Amino acid sequence: MAKPTVKPRWANSGGSVSTPSSGKQDIGWVPGEKPRAQWKNWLAIHTYNWIDWLDQQANSSDEWIKGVLANTGLHVKVQGTGKFKHGAESYPLPASAFYVEAGTATLGDGRWTFLAVSQITAPICIPAGRRITNVTLVYNRGGAGNVTMTLRNRSYADVGGAVPNGSITISAGTGFTTAQFAVAPNYTIGASEFMFLRVQCDNAANVIVGADVGYDFL
Predict the structure, then answer these.
(1) What is the average pLDDT across 132-136?
(2) 84 is a domain residue
(3) What residue numbers bound the domain in which 70 lies?
(4) Domain ends where: 76, 102, 137?
(5) Looking at residue 126, which CATH number applies to its domain?
(6) Could you report the per-residue pLDDT of 105-129, keeping only the tens digit for each?
(7) Which of 75, 81, 112, 218 has minimal Cβ neighbours within 10 Å of its Cβ?
(8) What SS3 state is found at 1?
(9) CA angle 118, 143, 201 (to 5 degrees)
(10) Where is average pLDDT lowest: 30-44, 62-76, 140-154?
(11) How far is CA 216 from CA 49, 61, 96, 114, 116, in A?
(12) In the 3-class helix/strand/coil scheme, how is 67-134 assigned residue by residue?
């Protein structure tokens, strides 16, 4: 059925409208009753207002659906062609998710410490089709050396490297803090593609606590 083009507009501009009592609204019309014009207008104008509101929501369905899902916590299964966005998600990488790729590093008390220039790496187990928006590194530079974070990819064919905008070198500061890539990578994971995060520390003063990978569905 096609969407109707005519709305039943009635008494919405200067009409004589009177609200029936709660008791009258309970029982409605009774046999033999001659309805008051003002009550009929009340029923018609509110019916029109609801139809008009629903029509506006249908014309901006993205905002309407987003509001409904936010208020109810429901999930939607989307089929067919086109794009949709699920919303922001987070994939945590605690210190224990990393392994030593190069150099000398020690994991203890939920953090990594280093004796010399070293690299630690963690796999990012997010399925293909998701988009990595940014990565938040939790670290302490300790006032010396550089801390470099790189978002990298690898395919079945063993081809890969750093993704665009997926690298940052931190060369100043001390104390525990966080850092993200200067420009959001917004990198969509391809089929048969694996993602991982590499962190290189150049000084024994550096400490790595972990990272948090932000992503969404497109």
Answers:
(1) 96
(2) no
(3) 1-76
(4) 76
(5) 2.60.120.260
(6) 999 999 999 988 999 999 999 999 8
(7) 81
(8) coil
(9) 10
(10) 62-76
(11) 37, 20, 24, 33, 36
(12) HHHHHHCCCCCCCCCCCCCCCCEEEEEEHHHCEEEECCEEEECCEEEECCCEEEEEEECCCCCEEEEE
